[in-house]
Amino acid sequence: MRTSHKLVRLLALLFAFALVAAACGDDEGDAPTTTADVPTETSAAPSEDPIVVGGSLALTGFLAPTAAIHKVAGELFVERLNAAGGLLGRDVVWDVRDDESTPDQAAAIYERLITEENVDLVLGPYGTGTITAAMAVAEREGFVFPHHTASLTYAYTYACHFPTWPVGVDTNISNPNIVYDALEASGNPPATIGFVLNEFPGTQLIGYGPPNSDAGGAVSEAKKRGWDVVLEINFPTATSDWAPIASQVAEADPDFLYVGALGVDGPNLLTALDAINYTPKGHFYQWPAPGPLLGAPNADGAMSVTVFESHPPYTDDPEAASIVDEFAAKAAEAGIPYTLFDVQAATSWTAWQVLTAGVAGAGSLDQEEICDWLLNNPVETIIGTIDFDPAQQNYYGDLSVIKQIQDGKWVVVYPPEKALPGATPEL
Amino acid sequence: MKSRRRALTGFAVAFLILLAVPHLAERMDWPGFYLTFMFTAFFWITQSSSWNMLTGYSGYFSFGQGAWFGVGVYTTAVLAGKQGWSFLAALPLAGFTALIVGLLLGLVVFRLRSLGGEIFALTTLAVAFVLAAIARIFAAIDGGRGAFMTSVPLPEFLGEFRPAMYRMTLVIMMLTLVTAYLIYESRLGWGLFAIRDDEQVARGLGVPTFRYKMAALGANAFFGGLMGGVWALQIGFVTVEDVFSIRVPLFVILMSVLGGTRHWMGPVVGSLIIFTIVDRFNSAGFENFNQVFIGSLLILLVLAVREGIYLRIRERWVATASLFGLIIAASVIFNSSSMVWKFLWALLGILLMALIPDRAWQKLALRRRPTPSESREDRETVDA
Amino acid sequence: MNADLLTQAAVSGALIGGLYALMSLGLSLSWGALENINLAHFMFILFGAYVTYQLTSSAGIDPLLAALIVVPLGFAAGGLLQIFFEWAKVDEFKSLIISFGLFIILQSLARTIWSADFRSLDQSINPYVGSSFTVGSVSLQIPLVIAFVAAALIAFGTQAVMGRTFFGKAVRAVVHDPDTAQAFGVDHRRVGVLLAAIASAYSALAGVLIATFQSLSPTMAVGWFGIVFPVVILGGLGNAVGNFLAGIIIGVAAGVAAVIWGPLSASLVTFSIMVLALLFRPEGLFTRKAAI
Amino acid sequence: MSLLECQGVRKSFGGVRALSDVMMSIEEGEIVGLVGPNGSGKSTLINVLSGFFPADSGRVDFVGVDLLGQEAHEIAAHGIARTFQIPRPFATMTARENVAVSYMFGREKHSLAQARVAADEWLDFTGLASIAESNVDQLNLQQLKFLELARALATEPQLILLDEVLAGLNPAEIEGSVEMIRKIHDRGITIVIVEHVMRVVMSLSHRIVVLDQGRVIADGQPDTVMNDEAVISAYLGGKRI
């Protein structure tokens, strides 16, 4: 008698749990991402369904500061795309996940997006490591893989990867030479140069070239121009104490300081230099967070590379101008402190343009067709015309231009045809 | 011993069943992610179980899992990724290199009687930082350049990338679990438990504490490193920042504490629950809440279920098994989403059930009040 | 390698060591005296910095004056957390895990409020960034000088309070023998809450100073682990003056090593010092048996 | 030859000499009372003999083996077991598991399966069979003290060092404990007992060794020793006559 009583209660409890779970489960059934096992609904009205673009970004973790910009850029792109009628007549949804700045997580996310959630397209994450891991998945699954911020150009051989970090496959040679050309163009080229390089794969590539290769990079290219390299410091990522580096820079006192910097390395170094009353004569920062560098002491004259800035001639095109405006508003809304549309947002935008151009060009969501189309047709983008070249691992030369902080603003100064009218490199 | 033979048979059966999964997946045309999901779970189960061999068994709290993992990752990254060794030749060295580093640490710290538990914990935290600094400084290891693992060829008999990862992680996980079990059911294990409770007394009763602690630390480092060696493939591009981050030690602690550190099965259960939840959070796009959730769960669990949930669900195993089955069945009927979601609902059901305090559970009057020792009695005869 | 360079590196190292000491003191006190390994201190520092940033950039308050608001907030937050710890009866291990949970939650909160992107006080509203004065050939960075002086005052002040006042005696009594302390009318809870509140106020102050010369991001707190723990270990748990000296040692060693062997060696040197300290002086370099 | 022989054992803590030149021998089958005023070095001697503290110098021979410098677990393997003044059971284990662990290590190595059987025997012997399954936090002081005994016995020692087993017990419990000690002795185990309750030590011991300020000041039959003037003055704190 007792036993059966207990049994009833057990069953009642289990049933309650099952109901709760089932209820939760039904909620999930409404999520847009579960398209796999609901054939009845999807096949009924396919054109009503949005095209799902899957991807991840480093929304948390050490890459998060810059990834936040890519999130705003991507969201704005999709918004505008849908407002203009979508893609193949369908709306587009961007399903972006957080890879926590870690490659293995990114790989798992792309695996899940492609094989479990059956997204239609993918777009690469932010950051070299996560892109590399995600690209391996895209390659296995045969997905077209546009990506915007991978810095190790030499390493990517997947036939259907489409880089929109437009620096050329030999970026270690081409990128520093654009900087050096700008210095020569200023009419006051340096006699001595000092290097302060982050121990980050991308900055090391530009500084020294690919590992196990004697191609060289910024350091050897400077020597080729007959400049005297008076300083070479490598510092670990996330260095917080800049005083020792600053004193060595001041001690070497180069005519030009080439900083292989990420994020806030630049402002940190400038603050530390200012604290010992040293102002660099000329200085360059590889990939700085633009806002903090503008507010740093003695930042005037600091140079960097870019492919797009929010001023003429880039904003001459009314569409570009409207993108710039809308981006600023959306970034401010997202709480991002520096709201100008520049190199990071532009490369993100370009990746979206490449993806959508491929789909529109191929007229289908078939990955092979999209890949073929992109390999065989140039794409018009916000940073110019891109023609992916399989002979250069799908790169297409270095489109970088030089910008400089002048009067508290970033302006493009070199080459003249891309520069803000009237602006020239100042040293 | 009968129970041991039964358990080992259980392990063998589980292994064979799991080994068949890739074939099944191909047959049934499962989403490729299911295998990835499973081998990622194997990864976490291995990491947390190996951590538990040291910390759960001997009571020496370690933040060092990231170090063993990192040494393993870098061993294969350097040997297979950079030097062009065949992957399977490099892999065992991942375990052994971590073992050597672990034993060196043990030689230093366990020789010092004055070292308290919290100081041991911080020393292990420092190890990861020191190793990261070494990897940065020496170009032969990393030198700030990272190492690509994406073009490392895998032997053909392992199959495509996914099944190959699955098979390798499966073998390592089974080795780890069998070791964890055997230690648990042996003199070594009981010696370690004695050390955990009172190291001085244990020594006085004849437990060779130094040797035992070294064994526990060695096992921890070896399996953590071995799995790290395989994991380098999943990472694809190995960098110091990523590998020596606090993610691995953090999750390993979280998983083991949730599941319970007293029993070898605790970390297994904890890993499955945490990993599945985190994965589904990510899948649902709750990235903003993911960390809030993890943090809250950690706090809640430490306050609510001190022994970990495994011992609780085992005392309530009939209910647990029925609940698991019921939820799976219900979600098959009511909800057509992916299998991982179904698995999650079932796990959440179990988690919720385990959170019911003992007293309230007894009020539900499902069984007579068990004496506390009952659970301990069958702990010794538990099988896989 | 000339002497000026080394002198500058050593002086800058000592100054930033003052900041390290201030960042570590809260954790050290709560660990040594309350037996909580309270990782939330890293978040008190981070929020101290962000709130300072917010007050300065939106209300135009001088960043140092912002301390008048930030420090009491830190005080309150630390006290409340300790009340929770008391209520939950956490031990050392539990405090570590619970505060790790808090760490993750608060970091996420900071990201939600201030975004993941870098925040920094612009030169135009922050008179301290890059400001310095010169003694001989050596430059002294003003935010760091302030941090150094504050750390010194606080360290010696705390030590004096601990040694001489009734509160200090009560703290020591509570640490050594809570039952007896209770018997003599010392309410160990109140003492603990007050001490935790003070410790958190120190951390918040460190945050204020960081905001005056560094860019902020939610993830930066993880990077502080590598500085704060060596300082805490080297100084001895709960030993305020030892903590201050340890900060200076770490700062100088890392700074000089960075100049001689390059910045990569700094963290190796820092941790080598910590490991050596653990091996040979696990009670801390400056702790006599009598200290808390 | 004696079972245990100490020669010139010294031990200092910081500048304080806890043991100086301790000479003592224990014969097989004896019950020896080790007494002395507070701080006379009794506990230190127990700690040295059981390997918890290394001695600074001297010699401790146990059945012909020099124990000095050996680890506690090696000493346990030679057949010396000890109990603690304040019981220190393994807190996460049941009473049975406590004893089983001890049997697994101890003098000879045994497997887990053997240990379970043996543990029950020793629990039976010490009258703890009914609480074998209990967690140690459910035991009262006497049960904990008996558990200490069971755990020491399970190492199959030749010599047991009992550190104040009677402290804190009421008269009835003391009675029971004395019985138990006799029972242990009947099994042929040599016993050294450190104790404050003089009446009990006098009745139990075959011989009494008195320590004062780290030195042996008397050694002999209980009656003779307790009438020794040096002993009286050590206890009463009077000046030597």
Largest sheet of chain D: 6 strands, mixed
Q: List the strand order in the largest sheet of chain B.
A: 1-2
What is the global morphology of chain D? globular
* Helix content bin of chain D: 25-40%
Low-confidence stretches of chain D: none
Tell me how many strands of chain B there are.
2
Mean pLDDT over all positions of chain B: 87
Largest sheet of chain B: 2 strands, antiparallel
* Multimerization status: heterotetramer
Global structural class of chain B: mainly alpha
How many strands of chain D? 10
Number of helices of chain B: 18
* Alpha carbon gap, first and last residue of chain B: 15 Å
Name its key features.
heterotetramer; B: 384 residues; mainly alpha; two-stranded antiparallel sheet; 18 helices; D: 241 residues; alpha/beta; four-stranded antiparallel sheet; 9 helices; globular
Summarize the structure.
The complex is a heterotetramer of chains A (about 425), B (about 375), C (about 290) and D (about 240). Chain B has about 375 residues and is mainly alpha-helical.
Walk me through the topology.
The complex is a heterotetramer of chains A (427), B (384), C (292) and D (241).
Chain A: H1 2-29, H2 39-44, E1 51-57, H3 64-83, E2 92-98, H4 103-116, E3 121-122, H5 128-141, E4 145-147, E5 161-163, H6 171-185, E6 192-198, H7 201-208, H8 218-224, E7 228-235, H9 243-252, E8 256-263, H10 265-275, E9 283-288, H11 290-294, E10 302-306, H12 318-333, H13 343-362, H14 367-376, E11 379-381, E12 384-386, E13 401-406, E14 409-414
Parallel strand pairs in A: 1-2, 1-3, 4-5, 6-7, 6-8, 8-9, 9-10
Antiparallel strand pairs in A: 10-13, 11-12, 13-14
Helix pairs in contact in A: 3-12, 3-13, 4-5, 6-7, 9-10, 13-14
Chain C: H1 3-34, H2 40-59, H3 67-88, H4 92-114, E1 132-135, E2 138-141, H5 142-164, H6 166-176, H7 178-183, H8 188-211, H9 220-235, H10 240-261, H11 265-280
Antiparallel strand pairs in C: 1-2
Helix pairs in contact in C: 1-5, 1-8, 1-9, 1-10, 2-3, 2-4, 2-8, 2-9, 3-8, 5-6, 5-8, 5-10, 6-8, 9-10, 9-11, 10-11
Chain D: E1 4-13, E2 16-26, E3 31-35, H1 42-49, E4 57-62, E5 65-66, H2 72-78, E6 80-82, H3 95-104, H4 112-125, H5 141-154, E7 159-163, H6 171-186, E8 190-194, H7 198-204, E9 207-212, E10 215-220, H8 222-226, H9 229-236
Helix pairs in contact in D: 3-4, 3-5, 4-5
